[in-house]
Amino acid sequence: MTLRADNLDRLRDGDFDVLVIGGGINGAVSAAALSGRGLSVAIVDRGDFASFTSQESSNLVWGGFKYLENYELPLVWKLCSSRNRLMRTYPTQITELGFLATLDKTAPFPAWLAGLGAFGYWGIGRFFTKRPRLLTSKIIKKSEPIVDVSTAKGGIEYADAYLRENDSRFVWNFVRSALNAGAVAVNYVNLDSATHSDSGWTATLRDTATLRDTATLRDTASPTNEASVFTVRAKVLVNAAGPFVDGLNQDWKIETNHRIVYSKGIHLVVPKLTESERVLAFFDETGRLFYVIPMANRSVVGTTDTRTERADEGVTDEDRQFLLDQINAHLELDQPLGTSDIISERCGVRPLVVETDGNDQTETDWTSLSRKHELEVDPRQRVVTLFGGKLTDCLNIGEELMEAVEELGLALGPDTDSWFGEPSNEEREAFYRRAKQFGLDRPPSVERAVTMAEVIWRRHADASDMVLDLIEDDPSLGREFIEASDVLRAEVVLMGEREMIVHPQDLLRRRTKLALIIEPERLNSADAKVDLDGLLGVARSS
User: Fold this and answer.
1) Strand (E) or helix (H) holding 400
2) CA neighbours within 13 Å on the CB side: how many for 285?
3) Phi-psi domain of 296 (left: phi exceeds 0; alpha: psi -120 through 50; beta: other)
4) What is the distance of C-alpha 408 from the center of its chain?
5) Residue 388 forms beta bridges with which residues?
6) Distance of CA 186 to the CA centre of its chain
7) How many CB atoms lie within 10 A of CB 317?
8) What distance in Å separates the CA atoms of residue 519 and residue 340, rounded to the nearest whole number?
9) Pairing of strands 289-295, 94-103
10) Per CATH, which fold does 3-54+168-257+366-407 belong to?
């Protein structure tokens, strides 16, 4: 029986302390935190884990430098503290990253003021990162020859952090932490309805991952259509549905003091534009920030900030052209970037929190909204709703949620902080020593890492030795799945065994970033598809 089928069986007709609806970053940290404190927890998502907003971020872990403009000092302090904590507890997954911001005629403030803000930001962050610098146009050009400084007034350089893998992989690690603590987690399970009574909540769930054409890419133990609907009971519901929290609360007739509005952001992944491992920041023609962000052997251009009424609005031709025009205007490229240079796209909506006061936000108010989160508790119906938030804030959300469920009468076990963070340095070094025996002390072909072992550890942490076990049994699994991908065939097998891969995109887009950095023609080649089918077939037969 596969991992997903086993969890589906445990979920069916189960009784839990907490049922978490939504498997993005908020839901994943909720499940990890609560199960880590001894509660019986189930988490479901109607798609794959992190398959909506949480897979569309900039991969940045940052304190919100731009929020200083609106004097949101408590929020910046809180986010910087969380950033520092994440950097300490995830030393290989989250690392410091420099930001070089060029200030030209489109910038809303002069370089000296930006420099003052950078030093203030550094201080709010308790001097945890590299000291900022005020830059002249000459220094910018020397540091980054690709930048057009013809209209630059100067610039600043400061530091934040970013995810070396991708956002959805980071979310999955919290789901895995919850599983390790005894939680039940299942993707592709839809919440059809939920009703509350004096004895708690009864949720009607539906497994939607049944009957796929390709046998190796389906969970063969999934129930038939007739048996795909079942019920679950829980004392408390956690509404972590991201952009869809308001809809669920309406269905449950829960009144809240906050609601969500949508801001659409897109990123374009293009060939690497600069060899430096830093973010290049500019102001677009409307005075908003956009970036060139490193991602393996690619560059990510973005993000836009457009109000939308639809959570599922995709990338438009206008979106693409706007970003291409901006980057071509600010960089001196041998050839201007065009649509043919786009390797992949990311498009997501940010669920921004506003107060429920009966009035819509004006356009001016909306553009100044931050990525803060709000947590509301309905003590009568025993529902906790998580509004907004961002990846950087995830540990705070987990801890606030634990306090909230305690207020609802659930008794938590000891707080050991075991639900987050990487294993110890000693465990990591022991893995590196063993990996050397398999030739994995070689430099990776794509990632900026010292060795391939470092990349494997970053993805799998305490499961990294399982990758070596598979290679030891079958040395052919030590080869890359796709040339110049830095994902070994053994990793594909391991993910198939323990990461609930239902559809190819679960692995290619979320458990790895292959679908973001590999050209579609290579990724979709017949050989790659056959190899993927075969490796996942090995996982399901083991």
Assistant:
1) helix 394-407
2) 8
3) left
4) 29
5) 373
6) 18
7) 8
8) 11
9) unpaired
10) FAD/NAD(P)-binding domain (3.50.50)
Give the span between the Cα atoms of 384 and 433, in whole angstroms: 45
Token pair for 290:
């956009």
What pairs with residue 283 in β-bridges? 289
263-308 per-position pLDDT tens digit: 999 999 999 999 889 999 999 877 788 899 999 999 999 988 888 8
**How far is residue 338 CA from its own chain's centroid?**
27
Q: What is the C-alpha to C-alpha distance for residues 524 and 519, in angstroms, rounded to an integer?
A: 9
Beta strands, E only, 77-215: 94-103, 133-135, 154-163, 184-186, 189-197, 200-207
Question: 55, 513 in Cβ contact below 8 A?
Answer: no
Q: Which CATH architecture has domain 63-164+261-354?
A: 2-Layer Sandwich (3.30)
Give yes or no for residue 366 having a pLDDT over 80.
Answer: no
Kindly list the domain boundaries of the chain, sorted by start residue: 3-54+168-257+366-407, 63-164+261-354, 425-541
Lookup: tokens for 501: 């891969």
- Whole-angstrom Cα distance, residue 462 to residue 458? 10
Q: Is residue 432's pLDDT more than 80?
A: yes
pLDDT at 222 over 60: no
Hey, which residues does 111 pair with through a beta bridge?
Answer: none
Q: Residue 307, CB half-sphere, CA atoms under 13 Å: how many?
A: 12
